[in-house]
Amino acid sequence: MTQKAFHHALKVDNDLCYGCTHCMTVCPTEAIRVRNGKAIIYEHKCIDCGMCFKVCPVQAIKVEQDDFSTIFNYKHRVALYPSTLPGQFDSEFSIKQIIACLHELGFTDVFEVEHGADFLVDDVKEYMKEHSDTKPLISSFCPAIVRLIQVKFPSLVQNIITRKPPLDVSALYYRKKLEDQGVDPKDIGIFYITPCAAKIAAVKSPVGEEHSSVDGVINIDLIYNRVLLLLKNHTPLDTEKIEEPTLRHTSIRWSLTNGEADRFDGRCLAIDEVHNAIDFLERLETDQITNVDFVEIRACDESCAGGILNVSNRFITVERMKKRARRHKEFLTQNPVQNPLLEYSDYLKEKCRVIEIEPRSMMKMDEDTNIALNKLEKAQKMLSYLPGIDCGVCGAPTCQALSEDIVQKNARLTDCVFMRSQMEDTGSLTHIKSIQIMKDIWGDYSINKVEEDLDNDK
C-alpha cells in the first residue's frame, strides 16, 4: 500500500535562491541538492527541522502558514498558544496583556497549549508501565524527531510513545468544551501559534492519524509583531475580565529541555538540537547506549525556545519561562487549582491515542525488495569510483548521496568534478560538455560569470 505523502512547510523561493549550498551543508538528513543554481528539497528525506531556514543568507527558504484572515471563517476563533509565546516578550508586558491583544486581533477564545502537558503525565506513566519491555521509550512531542526516526532510524519507530502531544490534547479539550456548550462544530476554528515548521507539517499531515484537531497554523513571528505593535501603540486593552492561566510550573517548562524527562521515573535522558539527536539515535540503534527508560528528544537547540520562528534569543526565552514557572510554583503552593482538562479525562484518554507509527526509510530505493537491493549494491559500487571527500561541487552534500542519486537517475557520474577532470584528460569528455554539466548544476549565470571574470583577468 502506498503511504500518504508528507506535507512540508519549508519551501524554496527560486527568485531569491542563488545556490550558495549553506542549506545543503547543514541539512541533517541530506535532503537538499543544488540543480541549475537553485536549492531543491527531496521531500522523502525532509523532516522540516528548519536548519536550512536558519542558515540561508538571503531568506530564500520560506515557512508556509495559513492566511491570518482565515480565522474569520469561524464564529468561535480559538488561539492555542505555546508557553514560548509569552517568553518572547519583556517582563514589562503581562500575560494578561498578551492574551488581551490576541482577543484584539480577532480571537474569541485563547488557551495555553501546555494545559495538555499536565494531563498527559499520568497517561504516559501508565503507557510506560504497559510497555516496560520496550526500552527506551521515546517521546512523541517533537514532530521533527518523530519524522527523523521514521526516515533515518526506522528500527526505532516501535519505541515512540503513541500518544498525542499537548497541542492535540488541548485542541481536543477545547473543541469538546465548546461543543458541550452548544456551539455548532462547523463554527469552531482552532488555530495554533507555532514556533517551528515541523508543527505546521504535523498539523497538515499528522503522523499516526488521518486528521489533526487543529484547523490552522499561524507563525509565532507574525503574531509577535502584531501583538507588540498593539502594546507599543498603547492600544486600550480590556484585561479586567482576563484571568492569567494557572499552569503548574512543570507544565510551563514542558517544552524546554528536560521538561518531560524530569516528570518520569527511571533513567530518563533529554537531548536537544537535531545533530545531537542523530548522534544519540545512531548510538541507540547500535546498542551503544543501554539501560535507558525514557528519552526526550527535541530538534531545536534549547527545545521549543529555540524554534526557528521565535523572535527572542533562545536563552533569554528560557530564562523568562523559568522565572514564570517559579512564580506559578509559589502561587499554586498557596492556591491549588485543578487542571480544567480533568473534567474530560475519560474522553481525552481515549482520543489522545494514535495508531501505530509507520517507518518511512529514506534509504528505501524501491518498493520491490530485490530491485532495492540491486540498487543498493550499485550505489556502493558507484561510491568506490568517487573521491570520498564530500566537496559538494556536484550539487549533493556527500559522495554517498551522489552515488545514490546516480542509481536513482537523479544525477550522473560526470557530475563529480574529479571524474569529469579525469574524463577530460583521457579525451572521453569534451571541455564544452564539461562546462554544460557545471551549468546544469550551478546555473548558466554562475558559470558564465566565472568565465567572464577569467576573461577579464587575462
Quick overview:
With 458 residues, this protein is α/β, with parallel strands linked by helices. Helices cover 41% and strands 10% of the residues.
Please name the defining characteristics of this protein.
Alpha-Beta Plaits, three-stranded parallel β-sheet, 458 residues, four-stranded parallel β-sheet, 3 domains, single chain, alpha/beta
Could you explain how this protein is built, in words?
The protein has 458 residues and is of the alpha/beta class. The protein has three domains: 1-63, 2-Layer Sandwich (Alpha-Beta Plaits); 68-351, no CATH class; 366-458, no CATH class. Helix content is 41%, strand content 10%. The strands form four sheets. A four-stranded parallel beta sheet has the order 6-5-8-9, with helices on both faces. The longest helix has 27 residues, at 431-457.
Q: Using only CA atoms, what is the Rg?
A: 25 Å
User: pLDDT average, as an integer?
Assistant: 91
Number of beta-strand segments:
11
Helix content: 40-55%
Low-confidence stretches: none
Largest sheet: 4 strands, parallel
N- to C-terminal distance: 61 Å
Total number of helices? 16
Instruction: Provide the succession of SSEs.
Output: EHEEHEEHEHEHHEHEHHEHEHHHHHH
Side by side, the strands of the main sheet go 6-5-8-9
Number of domains: 3
Instruction: Tell me, briefly, the overall form.
Output: globular
